[in-house]
């Protein structure tokens, strides 16, 4: 159990709403980065549509896994949720409050509630600071703790994340990659956040360490009543930790579903391809499943393909795919997909999608 440091303000546990209530609601979220030309007089010649209309809801105490290849917009989405990036359009509602365009000043108290775990445990920790001052920094920044209480609170946090509290005065270079990520997680927990956005939390770690860190995140979720958005390029990383999984491609959400439904019956051809690449150790479980190798690279978000953005790489593509954008349609309970010809879908799926797209 972590003790709370002596505080200059009342440090009562803050209610985060009953389990199952919407904690984070994202709708129509967009981030377009302008592309400019000209050395002296700059003029905009285009925009990189890094995120281009993304919707999802994360319920209290649950985990959304956001998955996709590099450049699909998942990290940009995470950075907009934590307001490290200003959205171009759309809405972010946290605990019923619209935080889409709140000022940095107004965001400051909210930083206690919304924290981020970064991908690279090597570069995200200041090498000149001791572990004690790194993990204790949020208490000082938010002015919520007296000096006397910080050390005890930090040592308790180190204990909770599986590190030796006696290592309080050591420096980051004295720890392994997995231990450094644990230090980053301890720092994130310091202010008892409600929502943590974890951006590729294990991708920089050895495979043997990845499961330990994922298990730690799961344990902490129960102990601290945390809600997570976990970003990963690999569906296998988020499988065991996510209640809901969103698959992104070129700035769009192409499939969003409950964990069980998505892994047992992926409907979007892109998700099917990603899942086919996940290694299955037991050949009898793998069955006749063949690996689907996608042709070509992800197109540039500066000039994405029209209509279904995946049509240049999809083995099921037909003419309509390059002409009409498929809308997100809930084809199974709690499971939506944006595809004219989904896999593993109910018999009337194509009609329902065509109707929603206005072409039936
Ligand atoms: Fe493939 Fe067409 Fe579905 Fe796009 S809409 S994923 S191109 S089948």
TrEMBL record:
Cited PROSITE patterns: ABC_TRANSPORTER_1, ABC_TRANSPORTER_2
Official protein name in the record: ABC transporter domain-containing protein
Species lineage: Bacteria, Bacillati, Actinomycetota, Actinomycetes, Streptosporangiales
Residue stretches making up the ABC transporter domain: 35-275
Region forming the signal peptide: none
Compositional bias annotation for Low complexity: 1-10
SMART domains in alphabetical order: AAA
Family, similarity comment: Belongs to the ABC transporter superfamily.
Gene3D superfamilies to which the protein is assigned, alphabetical: P-loop containing nucleotide triphosphate hydrolases
Keyword Translocase on entry: no
